Amino acid sequence: MTETMEIFNERLFSVDRETLFQAFADPKLLEQWWGPQGFTNKITAFDFRAGGTWTITMTASDGTDFHNVSTFRDIIAPQSIVFEHHEPMHVYTMSINFIKNPAGTTLQWRMVFDATDENLHLKKFIAAANEQNFDRLESVLNEMATSS
User: Where are the alpha helices (DSSP H) in 34-116?
Assistant: First the structure.
């Protein structure tokens, strides 16, 4: 049996669950906030259903492209999304939960990796990158609120 490593991030967003879920379910919105600071994105496939493929190229500020391929495993709108990230590295399963909260919605990300030396070394970096992801998401949600 392979040992696993978990990375868990959580943040309260001051929007309703449906709005927060839509920020992931709409690939045009997702492109705007996915990934750590300094990245831009191009989604080339987004079959948002169980068994569907999600392909995104993340481009770092230095111009380096990172092609990513994932498969959606389970989607329960607007409660949860589970996907498996296959390529190019860091194979993991991501469980995303959208939890109603009196002040908005709590977003929980749980990433499960094999506990390899490389993954254990990257754990702190990935956890910090997830927080940057949340910061970018918050900015997109704020823009949506001011434009509506």
Answer: none
Tokens (6 digits) for 1:
């049996």
pLDDT bin (cut points 50, 70, 90) of residue 87 is: confident
pLDDT tens column, 32-42: 999 999 999 99
Q: Which residue intervals of 12-86 are DSSP H helices?
A: 17-25, 27-33
CA 54 to chain centre: 12
Other beta carbons within 10 Å of 113: 22
DSSP string for residues in 33-65 = H-SSTT-EEEEEEE--STT-EEEEEEE-TTS-E
pLDDT: which is higher, 1 or 36: 36
* Number of other residues whose CB lies within 10 A of the CB of residue 119: 19
Backbone phi and psi for residue 104, each to the nearest 5 degrees, phi listed first: 145, -125
88 band by pLDDT with thresholds 50, 70 and 90 = low
The CA–CA distances, whole Å, from 35 to 4, 31, 103, 126, 127 equal 23, 9, 25, 10, 12
Residue 49 DSSP class: S
Is this prediction's pTM over 0.85? yes
